User: Fold these one by one.
Assistant:
Number 1:
Amino acid sequence: MLLACAVAMAEDPYASLGNFEMTVAYAQPKGNPRDVSMDKFAADVAEKTNGHVKVTVFGNGQLGTEKEMLEQVVGGVIQGMRGGQFDFSPRLLMFTLPFLTQTRAQVTALLQSDLAKKVCAEAEKTTGTVIINLCDAGGYRQFSNNKHPITKPADLVGLKMRTNGMKTIDMTFIALGATTTTVPYADLYMGLKTGIADGQENPWVNVEGMKFYEVQKYFTQVNYQFHPDPFYVNAAWWNGLPEEFRTIISECATEMGAYNDELIDQNSEAAKQVIIDSGAEVYVPTEEELKAFQDACQVVYEQVVKEGICTQEELDEMLAIVEAAK
């Protein structure tokens, strides 16, 4: 009997650690990079823990809005969620400053920086969650609307633009002369179709996946912002896991994040082409036209420091990281 137990332990070194279930939710639909990378994460965790940690994913907003899902994580109803929901970690907004980066290398350098690690570590103290990975939420974000092409900041004046409630999006649109209205991501298609909002901002992969091009006529490729994609996990559940499983899950989350970003880069141009093929108009500003948008948004940098989202020193640190990653 003892020999049999020893053999079993040798075959499965985690047999004595127990079994755990991890429910993770997110808003994106089937086929979106977040969805595909989460499937990889679930499979990797199952394989590397010998099935002792089972990850079940609920995509497409099945468990509610991103805010509702994060509240469920905080309350321990589910164990994790992925999404650019910063209500409980507003300091992450520092990485969403308009026109902060221009390349994937710069985005990666910011998200893997010591500054990003410091900001993520603050989440446990304030929200009862642990951020186990920080990757890209969907690629660079673009403007669209139903009224007319947006080729200069003045074209946004008078437009009612949808936001998800993020301060930096609101600040950006207001700096450009638009008004804003908050619409949950899952309700955005109907909100655009019924005229609750004239326009919106999202990455190409999100626009294609949610078919927003069916209810939007004019797109402008401004690449004005990327969103961090924090993987929030309930801190009490996380800290109750055996150390071996925390290590494995962290490694799988890191691999998932890298895979997610690769998928975004691979899928963005194809998604943009679907939008063009649908008959929607895509305008690409000249360098001079783009600078007009950038200049109009400089006030947002002053506002985030004034509101305490980041300090001037942290802003300078971000700018230095971006400059070094060119």
Number 2:
Amino acid sequence: MTKLEELKEKFDKKIDNEFKEFIENLKQCTPEVIIEKSYEKVSKEEMIYKLKDKEYTTADLKALLKTDGILEECYDEWLKSDGNFNEVLEYAIDERVDLIVEDFREKNKKERER
């Protein structure tokens, strides 16, 4: 295993442990708080996939391994730029609604032709 691979493995474990700690803390909360934090949980899960999928240099990984709270920092940054999520969500809704309406029109047209 190369040095880069070793560092990447350590980084992946670090991210997993940060998330496990977040979940353990969440388990101690009231149901109301858990519901309030559900968006944070899902967002951090997605961030883990993205963080693990990225390619890093040895220097990148060394810096990341010395940093605590990477998921929390990423989540805070995500909250600052949440408009992008809203745009993607709106696009997905618009596309689906357009398809539903188009399918409905096609079905009605076929029924009228009978």
